[in-house]
Every structure is written in C-alpha cells, then in structure tokens.
Amino acid sequence: MTQRSYFGTDGIRGTANAPPMTAEVALAVGMAAGLQFTSGDHRHRAVIGKDTRLSGYMLEPALTAGFISVGMDVVLVGPLPTPAVAMLTRSLRADLGVMISASHNPYQDNGIKLFGPDGFKLSDEVEARIEARMAAGMAGELAPASDLGRATRLEDAVGRYIEYVKASFPRGLRLDGLRIVVDCANGAAYRVAPTVLHELGADVVPLGVHPDGFNINAGSGSTHPEAMAEAVAREGAHIGLALDGDGDRVVMADEAGALLDGDQLLAVIARAWHESGLLRGGAVVATVMSNLGLEEYLRGLGIGLVRTRVGDRYVVERMLADGLNLGGEQSGHIVLSDHATTGDGLLAALQVLAALVKGGGPASSALRPFQPIPQRLMNVPVNGTAPLRDREVKRAIAEAEARLGARGRLLVRASGTEPVVRVMAEGPDEAAVAEVVETLAAAIGGAAAR
Fold it and tell me: 137: which strand partners?
C-alpha cells in the first residue's frame, strides 16, 4: 500500500491554516477525491457538512471549489453531526460525503473526513490513492468550462436527520417524564440533539448550544463531561448525555452525576438487544482500549467480544466482516449498523434511554451493568514515534508487562489524532496499575526530551 502523508486514523487533521489543514490542501483533496469517485455518465455529487469551528468557513469553500473544478456538484448541508453527513450521502445517492471537523479537538484544529457512496469511511487503500493523485498533480484532469460542477444548499438537512434519528427509537416507547440534560459541546449537534429529545417527550435541559466559532468542546461535551454531570445533579435530572464536537460519540451520567463511559453503554445496549433478539452474530466489537470487565460481563451473557485496533472505522470494518451489528469504543463511539454506517452519539443515547425506560429503575442501577477492572490511561506529549523505539522505553514496557502479570493488560500506542503516546494498563491491583502507568509515562517523557 502507498504510504499516506495526510490521512491518519480518522481523516486529515491538524491546526487550522497550517499544513496540512490549509485551504490549499483542502482544494487538492476536493479535486483528488472528486476524480477518485468519478465514474460513469451520471451527474456526480458530493455532500459537505461541517461542525461549528471558525475555520470551517475557510475549508468548506476550498473543498467546494476542488469538487466543482473536476466537474462534481456539491450539496452543502451546514453544521450537522458527522453521522448525518454519512446518512445524507447515502440518502441523496451522492458519490462522496465530506465532514469538516476535528471531532473532540479544540477550535484551533480542524479536519476532513471522507465517506464513500455507501456512507462508510474510506479504507486506507482508497485514502492512499487520493494522496497519490494529490502528489502527481491534477492540472491535466480539470473539467472544461462547460462541465464545471454546481453548488447548492440542502435546506431541509436538519429536519431529515432529526426524523432519521427519531425513527431509530423503539416503536411504542416515549421519553415522557424523563428530565434529560444534553451537552452538545457547542458543536455540530447543537440544534438536532435537544430537538430530538424534546420531540420524543423528554423535559430537556440543554447545554453547549450557543456556538461562536471558538467555544466548541471548550470545557464541555464528551471530553469534558463534568459540566453535564454537575447539571444532572443540580437540575434533578434522571440522566445526562454529552456529545463531542461532531456528534459521533457520547458519554452519559446517571441521576447522581456519576459518569457512564462507552464500555458501560455498549454493555447496556448489548444486553437489551440480546434479550430482544436484535443482536446479530452473538458478539460485540470493541477496541483494545475497552475494559476487561466488559469482556467478562458479556461472556457471562453468552456474548463474545471481538477486539480491533483503535478507531471507529476499524470497528466498522470488523463488524462488516463478521456480520455483527453492534460495536464501539470506550471513548463513546458506538456503531449501530442496523441504523448507521458510523458512530452516532445521539442514536446510541436513544438506545440506552430505551433500555432505561423499559427497565423502569434509576439510571445508577439500570445502566451500570458491570464493575470495571481497575484501568489507568495517561497521555504523554511527544513529537513523533521515536520515543517508542528508545531502548530504555522498551525495557520499561517489558518490566511493566511482567509487573501486571497474566491477569493484567498493557497497551502503549501513538495517537493517530494528537501528538501524544497513550499508555493504558489494567489489572486487579489498582495501585500496581497506577504505578506501572506513571513509571512508563515518565520513561516515554524522558525519551521524548532527549
């Protein structure tokens, strides 16, 4: 496979208006992706959505110009969650979907995620082919003046997604009587999430619904769920949910404000679907980051757990390969393939809320089905992956694995979206887990400084 220079584990991402997240690169991506997905005589079309970052106003027209220059029409849908763009790409029979977002990152960053006509994120191989086109230059492949594309705006995009999400909620159920806090991170879901919950009957307490281009994910959303958890307790709510900047992940909190991560939510949905006969293939897909407690809990229900590398698209690839319809990540990316082609925080939250309504008990008991095995995660700032090749770091990793023993687990990996190395350990001895992570993080940090 051709080496990729721009694409990481979740599209292209970086600081806005600095390489690779510049208008120039966005223009080239639009041209190359447009050419990659142009085949046949039909009028070709790309759907472009974005979150609420200021830099979206720079990248959206650059991508649009790139597509138009190679003869592809563009449908602009404005600020909408990533899964909405995937859904609309399929619904509109478009050739390509684009989401402009850096997900949970601060406003200074931005990114470009691409979806194929089937609504699924592109494979590594297709991304590599797009990069190869960018490197080769495309001046000779531009459309003649008579064949340039056109750009239009889809005025009812928000309404389409709202109805699509509501249709996933089980028939006959309502959220009447539930007081729900929803934190939209001042991001892409700021309009749709409160509306969906309200129309299903909930008493909604909205947070993070006043984006200004700079406040996306700032002290709010799934990466900073403390505000949501505090509001649940303060407002006397039954439950709370926090989405990230592009709406593809969710973290929830029970009535006391105690957090429920993606592993707990996966367990709740897996149990509910297993009991109702909706779970396909007898297994759930998760990543190497998911807690061993989840694996043991599912095993007790007769459900298998299949692990993949980190990244929701790798979860989706394994779900498709194994014929499974539920998968996700501890971070809150949950994929329900009966309804969506990618992680959808709002869809996942509705399935959890359905389980809560059916169960009738408080969230603290109904939505916390297993006790996690002690786990510790630390992000160590680095510049590149060289520290992981350091001799002292390798020795520290070996010693950490020996310390954790057969009942423990260690994961050390470079992030695909941030300049950090993630160090995760878990095992029955909480003190040993904490010590292992801190020692190893210090070794990596020392190597990075050398």
Answer: none
Return the bridge partners of 45, or none: 73
Helix (H) or strand (E) holding 179, with range, is strand 179-183
How many Cα atoms occupy the beta-carbon half-sphere of 430 within 13 Å?
3
Whole-model pTM?
0.90
Q: Among 51, 248, 81, which Cα is nearest to 161's?
A: 81
Q: What is the pLDDT of residues 278-303, one digit of tens each?
A: 999 999 999 999 999 999 999 999 99
Whether the link from the prior residue into 374 is cis, omega within 30° of 0, is no
Neighbours of 153 (CB within 10 A): 10
Q: For a pLDDT cut of 90, what percent of the chain falls above it?
A: 87
User: According to the model, what pLDDT value does residue 147 have?
Assistant: 95
Count other C-beta atoms under 10 Å from residue 135's C-beta: 12
Closest CA to 100 of 136, 154, 58, 163: 58
What pLDDT, in 10s, does the model give residues 299-320?
999 999 999 998 888 999 999 9
Superfamily of domain 12-157, CATH level 4: Alpha-D-Glucose-1,6-Bisphosphate, subunit A, domain 3 (3.40.120.10)
- The values of phi and psi at residue 75, to 5°, are -115, 115
- Quote the pLDDT of residue 196: 98
So which residues are the catalytic ones?
A: 103
Assigned CATH topology for domain 172-259: Alpha-D-Glucose-1,6-Bisphosphate; Chain A, domain 3 (3.40.120)
Sheet with 326-328, strands from edge to edge, namely 304-308, 283-287, 326-328, 334-336
Q: Alpha-carbon distance 264 to 252, whole Å?
A: 9
User: Which CATH class for the 261-345+358-366 domain?
Assistant: alpha beta
For the beta carbon of residue 227, count every other beta carbon within 10 angstroms: 18
pLDDT on residue 1: 42
For all residues of the chain together, what is the average pLDDT?
Answer: 95
How far apart are alpha carbons 350 and 84 in whole angstroms?
A: 15
Going from the C-alpha of 262 to that of each of 251, 268, 333, 435, the distances in angstroms are: 7, 10, 7, 25
What pLDDT, on a 0 to 100 scale, did the predictor assign at position 5?
Answer: 84
Alpha helices, DSSP H, located in 344-412: 345-359, 363-366, 391-404
Specify the DSSP class assigned to residue 74.
E
**HEC assignment per residue over 281-341:** CCEEEEECCCCHHHHHHHHHCCCEEEEECCCHHHHHHHHHHHCCCEEECCCCEEEECCCCC
Residue 410 pairs with which residues in a beta bridge?
425
* Residues 328-333, mean pLDDT to the nearest whole number: 95
Per the DSSP assignment, residues forming a β-bridge with 253 are 240, 259
